[in-house]
Amino acid sequence: MSEKALRLGTRRSKLAMAQSGQVAETVREVTGRPVELVEITTYGDVSREALAQIGGTGVFVTALRDALLKGEVDFAVHSLKDLPTAQPEELVLAAVPVREDPRDVIVARDALKFTDLPRGARIGTGAPRRMAQLNAYARAHGLDIETVPIRGNVDTRIRYVRDGELDAVVLAAAGLNRIGRIDEVTDFLSVDTVLPAPGQGALAIECAADNAELIAALGALDDPFTRAAVTAERSLLAALEAGCSAPVGALADLLADGQIVKEMRLRGVVGTTDGTRMVQLSTTGPVPQTHDQAWALGRELATEMLAQGAAGLMGERAH
Ligand SMILES: NCc1[nH]cc(CCC(=O)O)c1CC(=O)O
């Protein structure tokens, strides 16, 4: 292969730089080609206000995609949970690497666990999905917590706790892992308590649909099980007609009998942010072998959730 450097478009945030850097390293190893990072400023980075108004859907992704479409960069790495469910025709997800820990975590003062937070504890999170599930758990288990809407990058969010403004904040384990701050976690939340966002913990590596050579090379980073799982999760989100800031949690995993993988299970949840009303269901089926089969699994669960009133719980927007 030629020695011309592959250009990887990346946001400048610490998290984006960390995950782009890690993918760049792997791409160098598997292709033998140099990879160069090209920094791109996104609308969501420039304007916090704009982000609040738009509601978050895809703002971080749009500028990267524009750069790909203009041929300014060869490929880009996205946090899969930030990716809109609609795929532009001119671009493809050339690889979905092995997902890391999909769980949400708590960073709390005094090494506190979620269930040990004192009465009236203030927990920061801007995600309606996290608010809904934390409040639902609190109601069911007699905890008295207040979810406080916050936004900002990981550093900013953890600072609320260090400064004593909040008792705890909720973050994704994967993000903390990637920036080397997983040690600050005081509690890993079971997915039975808080189902993660569709695609959480996974990355998507995207490039132009007509770049066959690069698609083939990047394919070495693809994990078919992760791809099937996140496809089912995103299909659920799409069928619920919800965006990445909707109160929707979803997680697909493999059910195994010993070493033998038997089925894929997809769990989904929708709830009001105050946690008073929830629709939570799961379905299992044969492990999807194609995109269409994975997509069908998500649609099937969405249909059941809608039949139980899921649509009526998604009306409110926290941001
Ligand atoms: N909402 C922002 C965002 N997008 C991706 C991650 C990191 C985790 C991941 O890749 O799933 C985070 C931070 C967080 O939710 O704590």
UniProtKB/TrEMBL annotation:
InterPro entries per UniProt: HemC (IPR000860), Porphobilin_deaminase_cofac_BS (IPR022419), Porphobilin_deaminase_N (IPR022417), Porphobilinogen_deaminase_C (IPR022418), Porphobilinogen_deaminase_C_sf (IPR036803)
Q: What is its EC number?
A: 2.5.1.61
Q: Catalytic activity, per the record?
A: 4 porphobilinogen + H2O = hydroxymethylbilane + 4 NH4(+)
Q: Which cofactor does it need?
A: dipyrromethane
Any Pfam family matching the protein: Porphobil_deamC
What GO MF terms are annotated?
hydroxymethylbilane synthase activity
Enzyme class (EC, first level): transferase
Q: Please list the residues that carry the modification S-(dipyrrolylmethanemethyl)cysteine.
A: 244
Q: Where is the Porphobilinogen deaminase C-terminal domain?
A: 229-306
Span of domain Porphobilinogen deaminase N-terminal: 6-214
Sorted keywords for this record are: Porphyrin biosynthesis, Transferase
Q: Which PANTHER family match?
A: PORPHOBILINOGEN DEAMINASE (PTHR11557)
Tell me more from the record: The porphobilinogen subunits are added to the dipyrromethane group.
What is its quaternary makeup? Monomer.
Q: What does this protein do?
A: Tetrapolymerization of the monopyrrole PBG into the hydroxymethylbilane pre-uroporphyrinogen in several discrete steps.
Q: What is this protein called?
A: Porphobilinogen deaminase
